[in-house]
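Appendix B. Chain record.
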Amino acid sequence: MKQPFNPGDRTYYVSDERLRAFKALTPEQRLRWVEELASFLRLAKISKKRPVTKHT
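Structure tokens predicted for this chain:
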């Protein structure tokens, strides 16, 4: 039986340079970044639910 995927097991690396760049953003820019990311993730989740169809 396949074990369910634990989302807490996801890991990724963020460079110090990327962290410094994010830290340099204004609070408004950070909020905009978070909102854009959330929108992207919602779109990805929606497209994952739809079957892929080929157009010829």
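Further analysis of this model is presented in Appendix C.
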